[in-house]
Structures are given as structure tokens and as C-alpha cells.
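Quiz preparation item.
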């Protein structure tokens, strides 16, 4: 009997919506059999980051060669560095039966959907835009200009929620995590029946 291939789960939403908080609340549940996709990047490692654990750190030349060889599910340039999701790494995890989570930007999510129509797509929204602004400003880590850019981007991203299979509101992070866990479990069971 061959092992069931894992799900590809695309998890996105605007900056400040609480994706990281929610993910931590459901990620370690053993029944979900989750693995986190590691991105490839050309940026320099930060203190404590480990190659192959936090990111696959490569040169710009290596990254561009990977683009030419169609080795990414999605990629983007952000603040002078490239970031991408290596297809081979994701497929290896899925073939091991793992349900792989990609926590990526909206643009990347659209690229993945085109290449992998069977991906389970989940979009996290704030209870309202004012709450999102409060959360972003509450970080107190960025100048006003960057905050305004993040808010404008969030406004554009929220308009794409119709492209996702599930839209979950982060009014209560634990409830959002429980709903996502339920969705993943249900889709994994359906995939098992389909095989």
C-alpha cells in the first residue's frame, strides 16, 4: 500500500492579521501531521538563523538559476532580496505524507494556485480594518511611512479573499486556530477516501 500524499496548504492574509500567532496554536497538533515549507532566500542570515532550518540561504546567481530551471512554486523580490518556495522540497514532504503549510504573500498564493489547483487555500482576515491598523501600530517597530504602506497593501490584499477556498476571521486566535485545524483534518480525511 502506497503512502497517501500530503495536502498543500496555502496560508495567507495581510500583515498584522495574526497569521504567526494562529499558526503556533494549531501547528503542533499531531493529528494534523504538518510540516512547514522552508523558503529559499538571497538575504543574509540573521543572528541565530540556520541554513536548511529557517531558510535555504543562496546567492542571487543560484536563485536566478533556480528561476530559469522553473524550480519554484512561487517567488518574489522584497526589499532587495529574493524569496521563493522550492517545488522539490515541498513535494518531498508531501510524498512523505506530510501536510505542508506555505505561509506566503497574496501574490505568491495566486501563483501557487495556478500551478497547484488542488492546494487548500486559507485566508485570514481581521474583524475589521480599524483593528488591523491598531495591531500594526501596536507593534511600535516601524516608522509611519512603512505603517501607511502596510495598511495600503493590506487594503489591496483584503480584496483578494474571494480567491481562497476558506476565509477565517481572527477575532479570537484560538477559535481561528481550531477552525483551521478542523478544515485541514476534514480535507485530509476526504483525500484519504478519494484514494
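Solution:
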Amino acid at each position: 500500500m502506497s503512502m497517501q500524499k500530503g495536502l498543500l496548504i496555502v496560508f495567507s492574509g495581510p500583515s498584522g492579521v495574526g497569521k504567526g500567532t494562529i499558526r503556533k496554536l494549531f501547528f503542533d497538533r499531531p493529528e494534523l501531521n504538518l510540516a512547514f515549507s522552508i523558503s529559499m532566500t538571497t538575504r543574509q542570515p540573521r543572528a541565530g538563523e540556520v541554513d536548511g532550518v529557517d531558510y535555504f540561504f543562496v546567492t542571487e546567481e543560484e536563485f536566478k538559476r533556480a528561476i530559469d530551471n522553473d524550480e519554484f512554486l512561487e517567488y518574489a523580490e522584497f526589499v532587495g532580496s529574493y524569496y521563493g518556495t522550492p517545488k522539490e522540497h515541498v513535494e518531498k514532504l508531501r510524498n512523505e505524507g506530510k501536510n505542508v503549510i506555505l505561509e506566503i504573500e497574496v501574490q505568491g498564493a495566486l501563483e501557487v494556485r495556478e500551478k497547484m489547483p488542488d492546494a487548500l487555500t486559507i485566508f485570514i482576515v481581521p474583524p475589521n480594518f480599524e483593528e488591523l491598523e491598531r495591531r500594526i501600530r501596536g507593534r511600535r517597530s516601524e516608522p509611519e511611512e512603512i505603517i501607511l504602506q502596510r495598511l495600503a497593501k493590506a487594503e489591496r490584499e483584503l480584496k483578494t479573499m474571494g480567491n481562497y477556498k476558506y476565509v477565517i476571521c481572527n477575532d479570537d486566535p484560538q477559535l481561528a486556530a481550531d477552525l483551521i485545524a478542523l478544515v485541514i483534518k476534514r480535507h485530509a480525511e476526504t483525500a484519504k477516501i478519494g484514494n
